[in-house]
Every structure is written in structure tokens, then in C-alpha cells.
Amino acid sequence: MKNRFVPAAGVWALAVGCLFAQAPAGDAMTPEEFEAKLGYETGKITLLEGAATIDLPESFRFLGVEGSRRLLTQGWGNPADSADGVLGMLIPTSVSPLSQEGWGIVITYDQDGYVHDKDAASIDFAKMLKQMQEATTEANAERKKAGFAPVTLVGWAEAPSYNQATHKLYWAKELAFSDSTDHTLNYNIRILGRRGVLVLNAVASMPQLAMIREQTGDLLATVNFNEGHRYADYMPGKDKAAAYGIGGLIVGAAAAKAGFFKVLWVGLLAFKKAIVVGVVGLGAAIRKWLGRGKSEPATTA
């Protein structure tokens, strides 16, 4: 399966039709029946055994682990391991995730430790973007060998923004795939905590940027770590600290540890194929970016 965003209405309709038509005899169901069994939740949602909470606004619904797995794999056609480590998903109430316009946010957790934010104010985002663009271009040879379409990191759709008071970070990238005329939007939110980072990722098409910006803006304030797990609760010398700062979060240092950019497949929309930019080239960008911090204060415990 070629891992990319496929927004065309005809492709989407065909994929959804095939998905439900190929269900085993006696198990066939309509998209509406499939969605009704996903198990939406509303109100206050608890994550990580009480370490974090989402006070859902009326504009979003929540899917737990099993519902998320079913939507990602059966509903959106991603591979089985795409749901590994997913804590849940946030789905807009205004649209079905099985519709052409459907989208959602996938929630995971990076338990790499406390991420120091000392570098936040000094990051040169233009320089960072250039390094990421160069690394993405360099990775295309390997992408072609693996059967993936070459990709171009067009630029920031939203330049990174970090709130030093709430310890929340967001940014968005615009991606262009060689086999599609439509550009892809990769929207990222990070909530920093005492022992790790909540990762919220959504991927959509560029025309959806304004809508996603508005809805995620409302959502951002509702996702928080609870007392004892908050960023301010960090205990130097006792708690683990990550080996990177805010810059590392943006270029993807946590993902690189696994040897593959697993976090980049998540939140895939209409029709929800997996996006894989690939660690081959971006790993170089990560090494360059982390290397710049060797003369800065240490960020490991």
C-alpha cells in the first residue's frame, strides 16, 4: 500500500465502498452502523491512568483505545500496527470521520522524560525549517526505493509557537507529494508534563487549515496534566529528563529513537492512508539540530 494522503472524492468513495462491501458475510454494515459502534465519549476524559485530563468541548467527541483502533485500521484502512500506542482520538462532532471531509486527532504519549524549554526563546525557526527541508529532500531516494512517493516539505503552515506559562506547543507543516496535486497539512500539538509529552497529531488537506486552527485552538486549553504530573512538578535529580528540548520536539527526536518516524502516520484523513516521511533524511536534521545544543546547558538528568 502506498502511504499517502488521497483526498479525491472518487478515491474516497471507492475506498469506503470497498471497505464495507468486503466485510465477511453476515458482518456487513453501513458506514453509519460502523460509526455507531465506535463508542464515542463526551465530557471529561481521563488519560494515562489519571495523569492527564481532557475536558471535551462540545465540538469534539472522544474514542478510546479500541474505537480508535477500529477507526484507524478498519475505517481508514491503515495497517494494523498503526494503532499501537494510541491512547485515543478526538473526532469533531460536526462531521463523520468516514465522510470525505472527516478528520480527527490521534493522541499518543512520549515517555522520554521532562523536556527542558530553555531553548524555546532562542530557536531560529527559519534555520530549522531549512534543515528539515534539506533532510526531507535527501530522504526521497530511500522513499522511492521503499515504494513511497517523493515528498517536499513546502514550509510552515503555522510557525511553531510555545507558551511558556502553559507549556504547550503547536506548529503545522505543509507537505507536497509528487503523485498528488493537493498539499497535505500536518498539524501538531504537544503538551509538556513532568515525565513526558502528550502528542496530538492531525493530518488533513491545506484548505482545512483555517478550520483546524480554530477548532484545535478551542481544544488546546482543555488538555492538561493533573497535579503531581504537571510540568511544574518536575523534580531535578530524581525525575528523568529528555535528551532534547523544544527544538528536538519539533524536528522529531523522540520518533528518531525508535529508528522510524512512527508518529508521522497518525491522524490521517480522507481517505486516511498512512503518511511516512521517513527517518532516513530527517534523522540527519535531528542530529544537526541536537548537535547545536552541545554547548548549551545540559538537558539530561
List strands and helices in order, with pairings.
Layout: H1 9-21, H2 31-36, E1 44-47, E2 52-55, E3 60-63, H3 65-75, E4 88-92, E5 105-110, H4 125-145, E6 151-163, E7 168-177, E8 184-192, E9 197-205, H5 209-220, E10 223-225, H6 246-251, H7 253-257, H8 279-291
Antiparallel strand pairs: 1-2, 2-10, 3-4, 4-5, 5-9, 6-7, 7-8, 8-9
Helix pairs in contact: 4-8
Please describe what this structure looks like.
With 301 residues, the chain is an alpha+beta fold. It has one domain (9-291): Protein Transport Mog1p, Chain A. It contains eight helices and ten strands. The protein has helices spanning 9-21, 31-36, 65-75, 125-145, 209-220, 246-251, 253-257, 279-291, and strands at residues 44-47, 52-55, 60-63, 88-92, 105-110, 151-163, 168-177, 184-192, 197-205, 223-225. It has a seven-stranded antiparallel sheet with strand order 3-4-5-9-8-7-6, sandwiched between helices. Strand 1 and strand 2 form a beta hairpin. The chain starts with 8 loop residues before the first helix and ends in a 10-residue tail after the last helix.
In which order are the strands of the major sheet placed?
A: 3-4-5-9-8-7-6
Rounded average pLDDT: 78
> Termini separation (Å)?
42 Å
User: Helicity, in percent?
Assistant: 25-40%
Total individual domains: 1
CATH superfamily: Mog1/PsbP, alpha/beta/alpha sandwich
Order of helices and strands: HHEEEHEEHEEEEHEHHH
Strand content range = 15-25%
Number of helices: 8
Radius of gyration (CA) equals: 19 Å
Main beta-sheet annotation:
7 strands, antiparallel
Judged by helices, strands and strand pairing, the structural class is: alpha+beta
CATH first level: Alpha Beta
The low-confidence runs, each spanning 5 or more residues with pLDDT under 50, are 1-18, 256-284, 293-301
Q: Please count the beta strands (DSSP E, at least 2 residues each).
A: 10
- CATH topology, anyone? Protein Transport Mog1p, Chain A
Question: What is the name of the CATH architecture?
Answer: 3-Layer(aba) Sandwich
